[in-house]
Write a structure and sequence with these properties.
Strand content: 25-35%
Distance between the termini: 66 Å
Shape: globular
Number of domains: 1
Largest sheet: 7 strands, antiparallel
Order of helices and strands: HHEHEEEHEEE
Number of helices: 4
Radius of gyration: 20 Å
Mean pLDDT: 85
């Protein structure tokens, strides 16, 4: 009986450790924390979107963010109209919202230093045409 109890306790301990490690290794959470820890709220980056959407949105578009708000797109003052370009924070929100829908394909890569997403590819279903979204973030530069 003692051996069974010891075996049971050891098994439970290892399962708990495995569960905690899986939670700790979540790339989204790790990289969101990395991004937040850098406290960058002013930056520029190029955004390219591959989607079944208007060609102006596809880009690449040079986006300037000051104090967390987009101020310029391609050197012109930004006024949200037909195209709501995302900030890096909004890209994280997009990832969270889309992955909550349990898409069929999720491929996300993150910047090794700053943690922002460098590529987001989400396909909700291979049975639906043209609903895939593919975002690429390049030429990111923090501003003072």
């Amino acid at each position: 009986m003692r051996k069974f109890a010891l075996f049971f306790l050891l098994g439970f301990f290892f399962l708990q450790c495995e569960k905690e490690n899986a939670m700790a290794e979540n790339p989204y959470d790790q990289n969101l924390k990395k991004w937040m820890d850098h406290e960058i709220d002013s930056y520029v980056f190029d955004l390219t979107v591959v989607c079944f959407c208007h060609t102006e949105f596809v880009g690449p578009n040079r986006i300037k963010v000051l104090n967390g708000e987009i101020t310029e797109v391609n050197g012109l003052a930004y006024q949200e109209s037909n195209f709501a370009y995302p900030t890096i924070d909004e890209l994280f929100q997009f990832i969270e919202g889309q992955t909550a829908l349990n898409p069929q394909v999720v491929q996300i890569t993150y910047h090794s230093i700053y943690g922002y997403p460098t590529r987001i590819y989400i396909d909700q279903s291979d049975l639906i045409a043209d609903e895939e979204m593919d975002y690429s973030v390049t030429h990111f530069v923090p501003l003072p």
